[in-house]
Amino acid sequence: MLDTIVTGGLVVLPSGPAPADIAVAGGKIVGIGAHGSFAAAGAVRTVAASGQYVIPGGVDPHVHCGWPITVPGTTNPALSGPPEQVSRAALYGGTTSVLDFAVWSPGEVLSASIEKRMKEWAGACFCDYGFHVMLQGKIPPELLGQYAEAIQDGHASVKIFTTDITPSRKGRMIQFGDIWEILKVTAREGGIAAIHAEDNDLVMHMYEKLIREDRTGFENMAEVHSTLSENLAFNRVIRLAENVPGAALYMMHTSAATGVRAIAEARARGAPIYGETLHQYLLYNADDYQRPNGQMYHTYPSLKFQEDHAALWAATAHGAIQVVATDELCCPLKVKTQGRRIDDTTGGNSGVEPRLAVIYSETVIKRKYSLQDFVGLVSTNAAKILGLYPRKGALAVGSDADIVLLDPKAARTIRAEALHETDYTPWEGRAVEAWPSLTMLRGKVVVENGVFTGDLKDGQFVPRKVADEIRARPAV
Ligand SMILES: [Zn+2]
User: Fold this and answer.
1) How confident is the model at residue 444, as a pLDDT?
2) Residue 41 Cα, ligand 1 centroid: separation in angstroms?
3) Which of 37, 118, 178, 378 would bridge with 139, disulfide CB 3.0–4.6 Å?
4) Ligand 1 centroid to residue 445 C-alpha, Å
5) Are 356 and 406 in contact (CB under 8 A)?
6) Among the listed residues 162, 149, 233, 236, the one whose alpha carbon sits nearest the alpha carbon of residue 191
7) C-alpha to C-alpha distance for 171 and 104, rounded to whole angstroms
């Protein structure tokens, strides 16, 4: 007797879409076969999927839950939405796994920093999760050994900033010599480095210049966090990694044509460099800063320009960009719009829930991408690059039964009040051509036709290990 049979749908398999049924037992996919092939086995529950696309649960590899948000004029940060809030919205939108960050601060022992984060999330997240280890500031030599242990414990990726981002966030940036040492550890121990790459000299120069010229409005953000900065920083850190055999990079929130080109050139040389962009970087640009509450569209580095859109989109078609993430930082509109300056505007965005529907509409419907390529951008590729595959990101025998029914008859216009994130959405008024009708996490139906049945005991930490082929060459 099976637990569940998902029957009658068009299943997006690793080999491509096919009419198929999926058998689920013990939280895993235990069989995939032609329609009707598991009927004789029987199941506790049958999920009818006819007329729907059956896809692996989304993987959002870039979210910040419970994250300090600077409140202008005070030293007390607000906190972004907790995992409970973000994961619930994620499941509503068809995302079943998220990667957040475990932050190390100077003076701490890394295992203690990670343990603290693990404790905060245990029993506090509705979906599955993992953490990028975030290092910052000066890296003491003994930390490198601690980080090697963290990789072996399943925290396979390390987040590195090449910039402090804004003048008030001093301490984020890691010096290049230290980055070099960290890359040697990732290469030796089987990790991958997730990079926020901006040229700190150039960024801080532009802060000084614009403040001097009294042009501090956030609408000038793309002048500070510029395409030239992305050009210099991406090429510099990529060149560093290329001089460490086996060092793989995951370039976070690529925003500009210059970043795309840097990744593409490195991949053409055979380097294991991967690119992430964000859905708002693909669909909004610096002109959107001029709209009412234009901070809604911002996340650091910055929105760029039309020509950057074109390059980013072209790169999502088997090019330099493999992943569309959110950089989720869920907060009320009041918090998102509290800063008005280039140096105090709140970054991140609320977008984890509509991500799949928006990207489906923009890829499959508008740009005629295959269903498989769409699934790659929102699930499979992140799982592969960051070490969750094939447990996550695939509908395959042995994979977790993280299964989403995407309903192409559920077209709608996105409204904040119909979402489960916060009191606004940067996607307000956007038409999408499908919506998830059912989300299953490891065999348990957690959302069905808008009804949430998840439990905070459901979410599990998922240890990650990056496959050798991912680290050897551009394998995705
Ligand atoms: Zn981020």
Assistant:
1) 98
2) 46
3) 178
4) 29
5) yes
6) 149
7) 12
Distance from residue 228's CA to the centre of ligand 1 (Å): 20
Å from CA of 396 to ligand 1 middle: 30
pLDDT score of 404: 99
CB 474 within 8 A of CB 270: yes
CA of 36 to the centre of ligand 1 (A): 44
Beta bridge partners of 452: 447
CA dihedral 464, 465, 467, 472 (to 10 degrees): 110
63 Cα to the center of ligand 1, angstroms: 6
Distance (Å) from CA 278 to ligand 1 centroid: 10
pLDDT of residue 77: 85
Question: Hey, what are 419's tokens?
Answer: 């979402």
Burial of 416 (0-12, 13-18, 19+ CB in 10 A): middle
Residue 23's pLDDT is 98
Overall size of the chain counted in residues:
476
29-65 per-residue burial string, b: 16 or more CB within 10 A, e: under 16:
bbbbeeeeebeeeebeebbebeebbbbbbbbbbbbbb
Query: pLDDT tens digit string along 212-267?
Result: 999 999 999 999 999 999 999 999 999 999 999 999 999 999 999 999 999 999 99
Q: Name the region of 142 (left: φ>0; alpha: ψ -120 to 50; beta: rest).
A: alpha
The H or E element spanning position 69 is strand 68-69
Instruction: Give the residue ranges of the chain where pLDDT is below 70.
Output: none
Instruction: Give dist(CA 50, CA 61) in Å, integer.
Output: 30
* φ, ψ at 403 (rounded to 5°): -130, 135
CA 77 distance to own-chain centroid: 23
The rounded Å distance from CA 300 to ligand 1 centre is 8
Pull the structure tokens for residue 310.
Answer: 């074109």
Q: What pLDDT does residue 421 have?
A: 96
Position 168 scores a pLDDT of: 85
Question: 307 alpha carbon to ligand 1 midpoint, in Å?
Answer: 23
How many A from CA of 48 to the centre of ligand 1? 37
